[in-house]
Amino acid sequence: MNIGVVAVIDDSAGLVSFTSPVGSAWGTWRGSESPEPGRYHVELEIEAEPYSWVPSASGPPRVEGTGTDGTRQIRITGVVASMDDDSVMSLRVGSDIILVEFPDGSAAPCPGRTVEFTVAGIGIYPYAV
């Protein structure tokens, strides 16, 4: 995913806010260098089990930060690309794929379905193209 780091919220924790073609949110910078405002190619990793997992009406894929300090959450909407036997789902969000471990005991959505969920945090891993 191509993102623009807008601001470093907490340098000691690596927390940054970012914008992307599919929305704005925040996450924990997992690069070896301290983050600076600018554009980066990154992989996003869901760092906690998703909660509030629901089927969604067809809508635009998005990544949206909600809440404030202490209650930050990220809402992600995308289309299921595939579901592996080990409960790992490939979710298409815009032109990108995010891998998500599907919660145990939940009915797995079929490929092609739009789903929406919230998570407490995401990791941001920069890479060079």
Can you characterise this structure?
The protein has 129 residues and is mainly beta. 0% of the residues lie in helices and 59% in strands. The chain contains no helices and eleven strands. Strands 5, 6, 7, 8, 9 and 10 form a six-stranded antiparallel β-sheet that branches. A five-stranded mixed barrel has the order 1-2-3-11-4. Strand 2 (15-20) and strand 3 form a beta hairpin. The protein is globular.
Q: How confident overall, as mean pLDDT? A: 86
In terms of structural class, how would the helical and strand content be classed?
A: mainly beta
Number of helices: 0
Run of helices and strands: EEEEEEEEEEE
The rough form would be described as globular
Name the helicity range: under 10%
> How much strand?
over 45%
Number of strands: 11
Distance between the termini: 11 Å
The biggest beta sheet reads:
6 strands, antiparallel
Q: What would the keywords be for this entry?
A:
129 residues; 5-stranded mixed beta barrel; 11 strands; 6-stranded antiparallel beta sheet; mainly beta
Helix/strand layout:
Layout: E1 2-10, E2 15-20, E3 23-29, E4 38-46, E5 51-55, E6 62-66, E7 73-83, E8 88-93, E9 96-101, E10 114-119, E11 122-127
Parallel strand pairs: 3-11
Antiparallel strand pairs: 1-2, 1-4, 2-3, 4-11, 5-10, 6-7, 7-8, 7-10, 8-9
